[in-house]
Amino acid sequence: MAADLSQIVKAYDVRGVVPDQWDESLAELFGAAFAQVTGARAIVVGHDMRPSSPGLAAAFARGAAARGVDVTGIGLCSTDQLYYASGALDVPGAMFTASHNPAQYNGIKLCRAGAAPVGQDTGLAEIRALVERWSTTGAPEPAQRPGTLTRRETLDDYAAHLRSLVDLTSIRPLKVVVDAGNGMGGHTVPTVFAGLPLTLVPMYFELDGTFPNHEANPLDPANLVDLQKRVPVEGADLGIAFDGDADRCFVVDQNGDPVSPSAITALVAARELARNGGTGTVIHNLITSWTVPEVVKENGGTPVRTRVGHSFIKAEMARSGAIFGGEHSAHYYFKDFWNADTGMLAALHVLAALGGQDGPLSALVAQYDRYAGSGEINSTVADQAGRIAALKAAYGDREDVTLDELDGLTVSAADWWFNVRPSNTEPLLRLNAEARDEATMAAVRDEVLAVIRA
């Protein structure tokens, strides 16, 4: 019977429990299918620190090599380090990681040459179909000439490339606490930060895919608590937290207070526009703060609003030639990084901005944090479409609001807005609300939740 991959092949990647949902034998088929769908003569493969990652990556490499593809293994790496290798070598890539998921999970993030995304509409559906077929019929006939398997170190080159994109030469000395969450930030941060005028206080830098200290998911406030406590105790200028595969970064100020990812998006957007002569397009998804398009316009740029999700951001980056893109989930995309996301480059921008002036981070980011936001609030519902229809009915006849359905339902007024989106994988509705003051935001939030949870 063919393997059922419906539970592990997601919209943008492969992700599931090992070995219950997938294993090395399926990873080998994924490698062969990736080779066939991309038509590549060479690929690059990397992996994170999860116990199952080296074996899965090696099996994938064997599957691709059997199809005649030369495979360069870069070993332990962050996801954005894999994107660097794909871009610099101009070959497709495969990163074995389950990002912030618990230890028993693993997955594959795939890209074409130049770090171009692979999702359901850009090759992942074909890869799934081949793996499901071959799991019944057996792997395809090997190529007449099998590909080679070689190793290559890319960490130093990755770090040098990032540092070439941000001027850190004249920053003042800073003390920074970094929480790597036992993820790949513990591998990349020491090399990227080497030689900079920084006093680094490492937290949980030991690579451990069982995550003994806390989940490597800084989007959950519970996983920022240790960093928030440590920063003021150390008298540090800021704190930075990375997720498991270190492609997202979260920032806390000198008091340990979280800095909104929208504020980081606005700050980096202003800096990238300045690097590009005060002109350029900046992408932001529809749940980022009103601050982001305002700052982009104030700095001479053109803001473009998109759906949530990296495939939409990357596609719009390529279509519009945008110089930068940001999401409220703390993914940051750069034209100079093959339109791919790299939290490390965003972190370097924050260090450069803070180190280039004398004030504290809280004062620096205040100008980029102008409104009151709810954060993302999830509600479990039995009927997602029915609850969204109820919201449309509740707000559709009001003359003081506008509605759009670019991604879920967005309702906007002069002083507030909210967006409600269904989860693709769980029976959840996700609410984000923002207003010009805290009281208005709370009133809108509670009114919407009452309809969702009715």
Automatic annotation (TrEMBL):
Q: Which residues form the Alpha-D-phosphohexomutase alpha/beta/alpha domain?
A: 7-134, 156-256, 266-371
User: Pfam families in the record, alphabetically?
Assistant: PGM_PMM_I, PGM_PMM_II, PGM_PMM_III, PGM_PMM_IV
Keyword set for this entry?
Isomerase, Magnesium, Metal-binding, Phosphoprotein
Q: Which GO molecular function annotations are given, in alphabetical order?
A: intramolecular phosphotransferase activity; metal ion binding
Q: Where are the transmembrane segments?
A: none
Q: Which cofactor does it need?
A: Mg(2+)
Query: Residue ranges of the Alpha-D-phosphohexomutase C-terminal domain?
Result: 376-450
Q: Which SUPFAM superfamilies match?
A: Phosphoglucomutase, C-terminal domain, Phosphoglucomutase, first 3 domains
Please give the biological process terms from Gene Ontology that the record holds.
carbohydrate metabolic process
| UniProt cross-references to InterPro entries, sorted A to Z | A-D-PHexomutase_a/b/a-I, A-D-PHexomutase_a/b/a-I/II/III, A-D-PHexomutase_a/b/a-II, A-D-PHexomutase_a/b/a-III, A-D-PHexomutase_C, A-D-PHexomutase_C_sf, Alpha-D-phosphohexomutase_SF
Against PANTHER family, the record matches this protein to: PHOSPHOMANNOMUTASE
Family note: Belongs to the phosphohexose mutase family.
Name the record gives this protein: Phosphoglucosamine mutase
What is the species listed in this Swiss-Prot or TrEMBL entry? Answer: Streptomyces longwoodensis
